[in-house]
Amino acid sequence: MLPAEQHRFLDALRALLGTSHVLHLAEDCAPYLTDWRKRYQGRALAVVLPGDAAQVAGVVQLCALHGVGVVPQGGNTGLVGGATPDASGEQIVLSTRRLNRIRSIDPAGGVLVAEAGCVLAAVQQAAAEHGLLFPLSLAAEGSCTIGGNLSTNAGGTAVLRYGNARELCLGLEVVTAQGEVLDALNLLRKNNTGYSLRDLYVGSEGTLGIITAAALKLFAQPAAQITALVAVHDVAAAIGLLGLANARLGCSLTGFELMSAHSLQLVQQHFPQLALPFELPSAWCVLLESSETEGEPQGRARLESLLEMALNDGLIVNAAVAQSLAQSQALWHLRESIPLAQAQEGLNIKHDIGVPLSRMVAFVESTAELVTQALPGARLVVFGHLGDGNLHYNVQAPVGADAARFLAEHQAVCNRIVHDAAVACGGTFSAEHGVGQLKRDDLARYGNPVALAQMRALKQALDPQNLMNPGKMWPG
């Protein structure tokens, strides 16, 4: 774009949004141009902050007219570079931070309508004020936004009971690549009238359109939540415990998180105030949570009975059941501090794999051998949502090694080992983080050719100018 056309474009944006909502100076744009992991640094023609869906549509119309790419950004907490512009300086970042209203809550119908820029924790709080639960929960819930959660089909810690973000969404409001507002804010649990456009836009990472609002499912608040930290010998024992928990607790089983002993040792090293309730006599721990409808005494008795049976069956080594909300929060803080402890330890190679539970033991054992053979001294920091087959299979540099150099020299080889192993087990290289910039080549390498062809056809049909989050998922 020539300088004169740039000026006309920016002037049109200012006329639409107001000067204060079009950021152009480098110091104003800087917070929007680097991803959360600081792996991607981009440039932008401007950062725009529309205040409603009509303004988002107006921005997209101007971008279509001038051929300018649009990079939607919510809380900027993504892990694959999906909300960062490229280095050309010819794209705009469209921040949804001003689209932050709870439009309505229907307690009887169990539906809340939130705009895309609503922080997840604010949606949780709005539901709680009506005695209801919005169950999506993840470590970044104090800063991630509903639009970002839906665009990546976020998972989190309660997928086992409530499902991914897609299952928690009834309908969407979306601005299309042509700048039209698609009002598909379905408030019904049943509505079989044509294609499910919700499923098309959820998980598309902003490459087909921009989510501006969503109708979200609400649930009854549990009468009690009982949390336990359990030590197990190995992954096979953890899977055995999961089977027993499913049989004994049924749908009240809400969380089932697997953590390697090394991941918890990193937490203790960098956050010594976060104490474990017992010594680590084994290689693995499970954080288990049950959400009860009957009440705390009944729930605690059921969980303790489960743990006693698991101990008698040789599935567990030790266990500690939280006796208060504070203790429960402390156990979850251990789990949620693992990524922070890794960051304190230094740069690391992250993976977000999904593997069928029937193949999980084989995956963990064989991949550990392959990685340590290829990268002697590398430390495996493995944790994640075992209940739904999703592990963060991370690799830390050897003790004393230059972490940045280790990442630069070995990431490609490590990624190939881990992703090949996951796919060979019938799994995926991206279970919940998305593709973004980081995994575009992996999508091309591992994707089903027929599925890829259909996805490309959808992209071409809905965004023929390739203006919606260009360079994400697909090259170019």
UniProtKB/TrEMBL annotation:
Keywords: FAD, Flavoprotein, Oxidoreductase
Swiss-Prot/TrEMBL GO biological process terms: respiratory electron transport chain
EC assignment: 1.1.2.4
Cofactor(s) the record lists: FAD
Pfam family of the protein (one): FAD_binding_4
GO terms of molecular function: D-lactate dehydrogenase (cytochrome) activity; FAD binding
Cross-referenced SUPFAM superfamilies: FAD-binding/transporter-associated domain-like, FAD-linked oxidases, C-terminal domain
EC category name: oxidoreductase
Start and end residues of each FAD-binding PCMH-type domain: 40-221
Gene3D superfamilies per record: 3.30.465.10, 3.30.70.2190, 3.30.70.2740, Uridine Diphospho-n-acetylenolpyruvylglucosamine Reductase, domain 2 (3.30.43.10), Vanillyl-alcohol Oxidase, Chain A, domain 4 (1.10.45.10)
Signal peptide: none
Family according to the record: Belongs to the FAD-binding oxidoreductase/transferase type 4 family.
Listed name of the protein: D-lactate dehydrogenase
